[in-house]
Design brief:
By secondary structure, the protein is mainly alpha-helical. It has two domains: about 25-90, Winged helix-like DNA-binding domain superfamily/Winged helix DNA-binding domain (Arc Repressor Mutant, subunit A); about 95-275, Four Helix Bundle (Hemerythrin (Met), subunit A), CATH 1.20.120.530. It is about 60% helix and about 5% strand. The chain has ten helices and three strands. It has helices at about 25-40, 50-60, 60-75, 95-115, 120-135, 145-165, 170-195, 200-215, 220-230, 265-275, and strands spanning about 50, 80, 85-90. The chain has a three-stranded antiparallel sheet with strand order 1-3-2. Helix 1 (about 25-40) packs across helix 3 (about 60-75). The longest helix has 25 residues, at about 95-115. It is globular. The two termini are about 25 Å apart.
Length: about 280
């Protein structure tokens, strides 16, 4: 399990290069510092993580660095190579497709639960998050660090608000890990292609999602979410070696459509319980 709440690890004092981690252990500090740098691409995919170099970079001891690396390896951001040490997990088209496919399936379940169980506070938070997102300045470039971080925080808040009404802590936990993994790919795309989001598309896509959720229209909201995530993480030539079209990412189909000769009766009953939860 990951350490305490991140307290928005993006709140970095860029001028000094120092972060504020009041109340956190040294291991938690090491975790969030490396977590931030892996997502941002400062620690590049497949980069060898030498313990001495990490100690020098973060000013922390060997034990907290090791503990943080073990936590990150459990979350898929770091590869544990045994006697050969650690390295940042590589990226690939196939890996991105698998992560997006898993996220599509989990988030459509969460969204369905959230719409069914969300109360007035849930709806109010979605509206507030949408307002914040559509009024956050769109970054002019990757050098516009302050606006880039603020926009991404607002974007993440909106998607988190959509799913907040769901009652499954385990699905939320797994989804949080998948969001981090996809975030790393999104940062790579930003670094290679620049910030390409248009203000009008940001408004229309997220407005449609908000309206469907608040109208309690599960089918429409889930379809819009599938389209939004698939388009956002379409693995194109920005990944380098591989090229994949959007159609290559499997859509998240409702479990009830599974062939009868594949799923057992117990599995089908379990899937229906998830859909109705």
């Amino acid at each position: 399990m990951r350490p305490k709440n991140e307290q928005d690890v993006r709140q970095v004092t860029h001028a000094s290069g120092r972060d504020h981690f009041d109340g956190q252990t040294l291991s938690e500090q090491a975790y969030w510092l490396m977590h931030r740098d892996i997502l941002a691409g400062v620690l590049a995919p497949n980069e060898k993580l030498r313990l001495q170099g990490l100690q020098d970079r973060y000013g922390l001891g060997m034990s907290p660095i090791r503990e943080a690396l073990m936590l990150l390896s459990r979350e898929g951001l770091v590869s544990n190579e045994g006697q050969r040490g650690f390295r940042v997990t590589p990226v690939s088209v196939e890996d991105l497709q698998d992560i997006v496919w898993a996220r599509l399936n989990i988030e459509t379940i969460l969204l369905g639960q959230s719409i069914r169980h969300g109360d007035a506070d849930w709806g109010a938070e979605i509206s507030a998050a949408f307002y914040k997102l559509t009024h956050a300045p769109v970054p002019a470039s990757l050098d516009d660090i302050e606006n880039l971080e603020a926009w991404e925080a607002a974007h993440r808040r909106f998607h988190r608000a959509l799913l907040a009404g769901a009652k499954s802590p385990w699905l939320h936990r797994v989804d949080s890990q998948l969001v981090d993994l996809t975030e790393r790919y999104r940062r790579i795309r930003l670094a290679r292609m620049g910030f390409t989001a248009r203000t009008d598309s940001i408004f229309t896509e997220h407005k449609a999602l908000m309206e469907a959720a608040l109208a309690r229209d599960v089918d429409t909201a889930c379809e819009l979410l599938r389209e939004h995530l698939t388009a956002t993480f379409d693995a194109q030539t920005w990944l380098g070696d591989g090229v994949a079209a959007t159609d290559d990412v499997p859509a998240a189909a409702p479990a009830k459509r599974a062939p009868r000769n594949v799923a057992t009766p117990r599995a089908r009953r379990s899937a229906k319980v998830l859909e109705r939860a």
